[in-house]
Amino acid sequence: MKSQAITNNFQEANVDALAVAIFKDEKITSGILKDLDKLTGGLVDSVIKTEEFKGEAGETVFLRYAANGKVKANRILLIGVGDKIDYQLPQVAVLAGTAARYLIKHNIRSFALAPRSDADGSDVATSAAQGIVTSQFELDKYRTQDKKDNKVDTFALFVEGARDKDLKSGLSRGEIIGDSMNFTRDLANEPPNILHPTEMANRAQKMAKEVGLKCEILDQAKMEKMGMGSLMSVSYGSAQPPKMIILKYEPKKSTGKKGELLALVGKGITFDTGGISIKPSEGMDAMKYDMSGGATVLGTMRAIGLLQPTVPVLGIIAAVENMPDGKASRPADVVTAMTGKTIEILNTDAEGRLVLADAVAYAEKQGATKIVDMATLTGAVIIALGDLNTAVLGNDQGLVDEIIACGKEMGEDFWQLPVSKEYSKLIKSDIADIKNIGGGRKAGTIVGAVFIQEFIKDAKWAHLDIAGTAWADDAKPHRVKGPTAVAIRTLLKLVEKSQ
Ligand code: BES
Ligand code: ZN
Ligand code: ZN
Predict the structure, then answer these.
(1) What is the pLDDT of residues 200-222, one digit of tens each?
(2) Which domain covers residue 493, as residue numbers?
(3) 60 and 119, same domain (yes or no)
(4) How many whole angstroms from 449 Cα to the centroid of ligand 2?
(5) Which residues surround ligand 3, an ion (CB under 5 A)?
(6) Please, are residues 183 and 208 in contact by the beta-carbon 8 Å criterion?
(7) pLDDT tens across 453-492, in order?
(8) 270 and 303: one domain?
(9) Structural domain tally of the chain?
């Protein structure tokens, strides 16, 4: 895709169509809408006046007209963006994605977009480019026929009066973020026979090389040496060996607080059958996305490698397959984690917390002072929050607040659930230090979190349960259904703010 910045003469862009944002109940008075109205011989005003188009968010009207003179484009796409007060940077990404998908459907691959946002030009460019790139992601990777070709050839962004240089740097930032989100989505969408732990590690290594990150893979022998009995217990039932993926980003010049190290830790269960506590067969196929937390860490680290913030970041993924066979863990087994804590496994389907136990402990051992783990950890979070909010829990209110605030800025909603000693009592075991389930059907998401908390020593820690938000059941005008790459933009903002 060629992306261009334009700062004046929107209509004269060398493209086939012009897409423009329209606010709710907007009247055409002056400026760009007036110009477009003139260009179309009054068509824009007439669709707005006749209330054919009200400017509600996501509404679209496509106008065809005879262009003449200097203007090449002979199509205009009006896109509603709702009330001006609700129109922030994340909505620019939605607008851009909606425009791209709409126009591609009409076989138009070159267009200019006027988002008409008051925000900083470079930020508008970042959002728009990200929205365009993520809108092009499709699920049909393994189709050999009827594959969609939805590639945009030319995208020209118009922000009146902005500096060309700012728009260009914003656009390239947005493309990096969008490509990194698509990298995550591709991983989450991969079939589990293809993306097993070893393949996940291979993809991480290849990506790390491309973007200049250090990458180390711990195999089972190394895990044994380090005493990661909790993590390894999950993979005993699988023919696929477990892998711990470690990515390191070190800035050339560091500006962050001295001694501070952020670690992003992801659950990378490449398939979750439940193990011996096997899941019902209906819907089990969805469990290919149980590595979404790990995929999110990989995508975020990819973007970090390319954007080069001035703080170091550590990425850790526990890549494991949860299968039942003769060597699998049994309900009633007791295992010892790397920290020395003993765990009674009472349900082998509560495996995410078992792999994260050793992964967060490893992160802290590597010097992490701030840990954010992310996981498709519980079905309970889907009951509590649906697919609209990611649950956030943690031992440090400052960190939790920061995540919620960064999320708000980036259009990703987080909702805090509590952790406390009372909840931790629910996982006391009769025969070991702790057990991996507790409380029956009560507070499932919290119980998962307080289990992970047992393996944090001094670090500030937050846990994101993305089981409800990492996969979308329905398509939207700006994106397909399926993997969402949730939390990447929020985490990048968190990193940016700690510089
Ligand atoms: N991967 C699942 C959580 C999950 C369920 C994600 C449904 C997405 C949709 C996790 O490993 C799991 O099975 N959790 C159990 C925990 C229970 C046994 C305490 C659950 O949520 O049922
Ligand atoms: Zn499970
Ligand atoms: Zn799982």
Answers:
(1) 999 999 999 999 999 999 999 99
(2) 190-497
(3) yes
(4) 14
(5) 269, 272, 290, 352
(6) no
(7) 999 999 999 999 999 999 999 999 999 999 999 999 999 9
(8) yes
(9) 2
